[in-house]
Amino acid sequence: MTFILNTVLPALVIAAVVTTLANTATTVYLHRGLSHKAMVIHPAVAWVFRLIVWLTTGIKPKEWVAVHRKHHAYTDVDGDPHSPVLLGWKKVQKDNVALYRMALKDSSIVDKYAKDLPDDAWDKYMFGHHKTGLGLGIAILIIAFGPVTGLLAAFIHANVYLAVNAGVNALGHHFGKRPYNNEATNLQWLAFLTMGEGLHNNHHAAPSSARLSHKRSQIDPGWWVITTLQKVRLISLRFEDVRLTPAAKASVSTSGD
Ligand SMILES: [Zn+2]
Ligand SMILES: [Zn+2]
């Protein structure tokens, strides 16, 4: 009982905070900002997001962007790095990291899909060393909260972050509502766990838009972060409101939402 109160509960709270930070940086910075250029982020805020990505995810931004843009270029057809339609949702859920690494084995993918994101000095000396960042992130948790609580928090965070983000690629192209006629789906519960990413059908219908909620009943926590930063002029949006693709406009499905 003492172990649960003194170690497990604090580790759960710490992991929740770290995962929320990682998911916020993933959806606002890596996905909506960098991959789709849905907004311009003030360099100081972008730097903080880069730091969070570096310490909490082990992701190199331009690699993530390249794999993600390829997913949009070949959504659920041959060439998609992680399509449940082609591979089955269970495989994508289970092997999301392996599929991501496999996509990066194609040495031309970054040049082809993320040419606009050349390394700067920060990448060269700091953010490009993704394993160092992840190690430092774990070390910070151990120093701040002790080895057992710190390591347990890191373990919980890593598993939840990987599971929910795999969920966007796997569950988010299989289960859920399809208000627009594309293979992706909306799952509000997954959106709560991923700062909005679970509204994935909406995203494929309007990839250049920063807001993933298209109706009052849909909740996109990442959008709250964006509008807060917009109010203090640290973010400016490319489009003020949702901008559907011509295909999405033409093909609002009858499945409803
Ligand atoms: Zn998708
Ligand atoms: Zn996207």
What does this structure look like?
The protein is mainly alpha-helical and 257 residues long. 63% of the residues lie in helices and 2% in strands. It has helices at 2-35, 43-56, 61-73, 84-87, 89-105, 109-113, 121-127, 130-145, 147-170, 188-193, 200-205, 221-231, 246-250; strands at residues 39-41, 235-237. Strands 1-2 form a two-stranded antiparallel ribbon. Bound molecules: zinc ion (ZN) (2 copies).
Q: Give me the Rg, rounded.
A: 18 Å
Q: Strand order within the widest sheet?
A: 1-2
Tell me the major beta sheet: 2 strands, antiparallel
Helical content band: 55-70%
Tell me the number of helical segments per DSSP (H or I, 4 or more residues long): 13
* Coarse shape: globular
Task: Please give the number of β-strands.
Answer: 2
- What is the average of the pLDDT values? 96
- Beta content comes to under 5%
- Which runs of at least 5 residues are low in confidence (pLDDT < 50)? none
Structural class: mainly alpha
Rounded to the nearest angstrom, the distance between the terminal CA atoms is: 44 Å
Summarize the structure.
Helix content is about 65%, strand content about 0%. It is built from 13 helices and two strands; from the N terminus they run αβαααααααααααβα. It starts with a helix and ends in a 7-residue tail after the last helix.
